[in-house]
Amino acid sequence: MDEAGLGTGPVTNVRPVGGGTQNLMYRFDRDRTGYVLRRGPRHLRPRTNDALRREMTVLQALRTTDVPHLRLVAACDDPQVLGDSVFYLMEPVDGVNALVDLAPAHLASSSLRHAMGLKIVDALLTLDAVDLGAVGLDGLGHSDGFLERQVGRWRDELAGYQQLGYRGNEIPGVNEVAEWLERYRPPASPPGLMHGDFHLGNVMFHRESADIVAIVDWEMCTVGDPLLDLGWLLAVWADPGETGDLMDSRLAEAGGVATPDELVARYAASGARSLEHLTWYRALACFKLGIVLEGTYARSLAGKATAALGSWMHTRTLKLFERANRLIEQA
């Protein structure tokens, strides 16, 4: 920070920023200015630093767009500074992560909680509206063959967990879901900017309204098929009448949230993309997210994550595959 001209004196008032289960975030002050630091987890994954470098690139590019995000202040791509992880600093925002907390205004109004779900869809649509060439992100991912690669890529990821002591047979129905996805894969659609991990826990809301002040955690961002982001959001959303979702969020617990059908209708009203094959994207999201979460369970078996967290994630994986199988049966 000295070399970057970011104030003088000691770092003070350091506190963790909650909501995530992988990378670490801390808020602190220096020279009467607030900052948020983001770095990798205590036990780095093989691609952690590459993913964080990708986040740095994306946040820099988003500065000129309508996508709500935390503004990048400075980045360090040298892992030796912290001893293991690259990191970057962002401007803090005064917002609420509805996965773990709700502001008094949200708790007091079911109509506000209902609107929060619709506003998430509105925020998602800002990503697809980004002109990739204009902001220099057209080379971010390999959009050609994006859908064709998905099932094989994540089956390989699951098989790789065996190096951590994972047996490989802990998810009932994984092969059947994979085969259905391969059989009914839709044709490719125009590529767009994807967040890659778009769900309630990765957005921050204004404390007095349903507006979203920032989308966070861009490590899985790529250029691909944005409908997978919509499927991802729906994969963990509460079903109608339930006071709970797959993430045990405070928003769902409080009740009054928009239904999945209302979220889909909000997206459809934009006219951004055809939703003809949405069931397939929802099933793929359950498949992919389930395997991502199973990675934490596998790391817990190797002592690289707590047993409690690993068990919680594994339970969510099983629920995601139950949801995928229901979608397939109804298709």
UniProtKB/TrEMBL annotation:
Keywords: Transferase. Gene3D superfamilies: 3.90.1200.10, Phosphorylase Kinase, domain 1. Transmembrane segments: none annotated. InterPro entries: ACAD10_11_N (IPR041726), AGP_Transferase (IPR051678), Aminoglycoside_PTrfase (IPR002575), Kinase-like_dom_sf (IPR011009). Pfam families: APH. GO terms for molecular function: transferase activity. Residues 14-242 form the Aminoglycoside phosphotransferase domain. This is Phosphotransferase family protein.
